[in-house]
Each structure stands twice: as C-alpha cells, then as structure tokens.
Amino acid sequence: MTDNQEQKDPLPTGLQLTALDPSFRENPHPILRRLREEAPVYGDPTMGRYIVTKEALVDELLRDRSMSVEQQNAKPSPLNDALVRRQQLQEGRRPSMLFLDDPEHQRLRKLVNKAFTPRAVERMRPRTEEIAESLLDDIGDAETFDIINDFSGPLPTVVIAEMLGVDPARRSDFKRWSDTTVLSFVPMPTEEQVQQIIEARGNLDAVFQEEITKRRQEPREDLIGGMVAAEDAGDQLSDDEIVTMCGLLLIAGNVTTTDLIGNGVYTLLQHPEQLDLLRREPGRIGQAVEEMLRFDGPVTNTGRIAMRDMEVGGCPIEKGDSTMLSLAAANRDPEFIDRPNEFDITREEIEHHAFGGGVHYCLGAQLARMEAQVGINALLRRFPNLQLAAEKPVRRSIPVFRGFERLPVKAR
After folding, report:
1. Residue 218 sits in which domain range?
2. Could you count the other beta carbons within 10 Å of the beta carbon of residue 1?
3. Which one, out of 30, 48, 146, 398, has a CA that is 20 to 30 A from the CA of 301?
C-alpha cells in the first residue's frame, strides 16, 4: 500500500482501536501514528469519545485537575454504556480509587501511600530477588518454557501477596482470579465471562475479608495490617474500602507488571544488540526498564471526562465528553522524543507516560520498576542463550492492557 492510498483510507473507529482488533493488537503504532499526524484529537463516532494521541495534549489533560475519572460525569455514549456495565460488575461496591476524583481519591491514596514509597519498595528488593531465583529454579533445565506462565506472571503475584500478608501458597488462585477480573475491561463481555468475573471477584473478596478479620483480632506488620491500622487526621478505611483496595493492588500490581516484564523480554529478544549490551552491562537495567516502558508499555491508554466546555488542540470538547488519552501514542511522538520508534537502552534521559500522570500517577510505579529490574536481570543471568521459541507468541486481546497470553522461549 502506498502512502497516498493509506491517506485515502478512512480512519479506524471503535473496536478497531483496541486489542480486540488483530492488527491493532499485534502492532498499534502505525494506526496511532496516523491518528497523531492526521487527527491528534479524533472524534471516534462509533464509541462516542475523543482519542488524544499528541504527547503535549496527553500531558496537558493528565495534569488537568478539572478532568474527572468518575463515570457518572460522562454523557451517554456506547463507550460510557460499556464502562457503566463494567462498574455494575462491582455488585454494589464503591469504585476503587482508580475511578474516584479528589478529595475521595486523595483520601484513600494517602492511607496506603507509605507502603509504596521508594524506600519501602527497596526494602522488598532482596525478597523479590529470592522469589525470582526460586521461580527460575522451578524452570530448571527445561529446554523451552513460557515467560508469562512460568515467570513474569507468578513473580509479581507472589510479591504483592506477601506484601498484603496473604499465604503465597495461594498464588495460583490469586493469579487465576485476578486474570479473570481483568475481563471486566472487555467492552461487551459474554454472559459466561460475566459469571466468571463475578465468581473470581467473590473469591478474592472472601479471602481479603478473612484476612482483615484476622488483622483486627491479631495485628500484623503487612499491607493489610497497615490498612487496618491506617489513620490520617482521624480518618480510617472501612472493611469494604480495604477489600476494594486489596483487589486493586493485586490486579493492577500483577497484571501490569506481568506485561511489563513480558513485553520487555520480547523487545530485548527482538533487538539482539540491545540484549547483548544489557548482558554485558547489567547495571543498565534501570535505563532499560524505562525504555521498555516507553517503547511497549503495559497500559495503552487512560480515560478522562471533561467537566467543562473546553478546547483541546483546537478541537471543541463539551462538558461530559469522554476522552481516551493514548499513552502508547504519546510515548512515540517524535516531538516528545528523538528516534521514537528505536529501542535504545542507552538513552540518557528516558521520559514516558507509561504510568499515567497527574494526581492519578500510578501508585505502584516504583514497585513495578523494581520487580522488572530484578526479574529481567535474573532471567538473563540464568539463561545466557535465551531466544524466542518456534511457537509464535500470543498477545492478550483485552482493551487498555497490552501484553502476552503466551510467550514461549528457548532456554538453550
């Protein structure tokens, strides 16, 4: 197809701009580039939303405190209807802080924030290294294995389970249940998927409520114990709020980090010169993880709702309009970063929007970074001849998240 032919093609809409579309799922960047160049604020007629792909505009809206994340503030639209259905799967429970505006968002965040400070996360590094080595021991002398199921999936699940204070022996249950609840991001889940989501969420809630009850009877120094005891200016978390927070931390903490490690390993294997450099100089792992986040981050977009009539990049946006801020497109904007489509772990200053921005900047960003640094370096050290297996990797087809369902590799 020539450039002229490409320009004549209509811009994609609706589900064509999600991981449910095979082309977008495999490589969203050609499509995102078209949007950024031809319509950086694109009114998607199918879903009734505006898609923002230019980095300066994405950054502006992420930082705009007047924008909302609470779905009841959005106009009726196909997108909003789908998001409302997702919230209905919460079975009457209040939304997590991910979908709450200040001051309620800030209240909840302050009560758990100290567990995710850089200092607190660094204290977890030695234990994370032990967990990574144990998982690699389990892989042993296998000639082939699946990065996702055998390593990048279990690693953050065990870490967050131990932080919460839940028996890590239940990690397979936790991983299965959290992976199932992510299906709530599918715009039109089947009845079978809805039942699976409700069952998985019920199982998680029951475990968390049991652990909360134990902490009230016998306090412990873990994350659930900390939330039970947390107090700020006389304010405390209710049991329902702690259950919701645990679910958010477990799901957000393991699905996205699983994808960060999986995407990062895949990208390294696709760029052997960068892989060789990291093997020779493992101290570059911090830079490498930042470049992985920029180049192929685990979350493709985030949403904001206009609370006033405004103009974004010359496009009028009305109060109640939904905007989808494309983090993936912003991270490849040539006006934001030089050589945006090159993967280069030697970049001196690597900026990106992989963790969102503004007041909703990802609470677990430091934890995700640390787990990826530990996990990827341990993997490369243990398997010096790691390469992609003959079996083709399979990308997960869930909107918003970008990662692999299976990533088979050869160990030797």
Report:
1. 3-410
2. 7
3. 146
CB atoms near residue 316 (< 10 Å): 11
Long-range Cβ contact pairs of 309-318 (< 8 A, separation 24 or more): 312/41, 312/50, 312/52, 312/57, 312/60, 312/61, 313/40, 313/41, 313/52, 313/54, 313/57, 314/41, 315/41, 315/43, 315/50, 317/41, 317/50, 318/75
For the sheet containing 387-388, what is the strand order? 144-146, 408-410, 387-388
**Which pLDDT score, from 0 to 100, does residue 30 have?**
96
- Is beta strand 387-388 parallel, antiparallel or unpaired with respect to 408-410? antiparallel
Residue 280 · residue 286 · CB < 8 Å: no
> Rounded distance, CA 50 to CA 207, Å?
39
**Residue 107, Cβ density class (10 Å: 0-12 exposed, 13-18 middle, ≥19 buried):** middle
Split the chain (412 residues) into runs of 10 and give each run's mean pLDDT.
Answer: 57 91 95 96 92 98 96 81 61 77 92 87 95 96 95 92 83 82 76 87 90 90 88 77 88 86 98 97 97 97 96 96 97 97 94 96 94 98 96 93 96 85
Helix (H) or strand (E) holding 302: strand 301-305
Question: Which domain CATH number covers 311?
Answer: 1.10.630.10
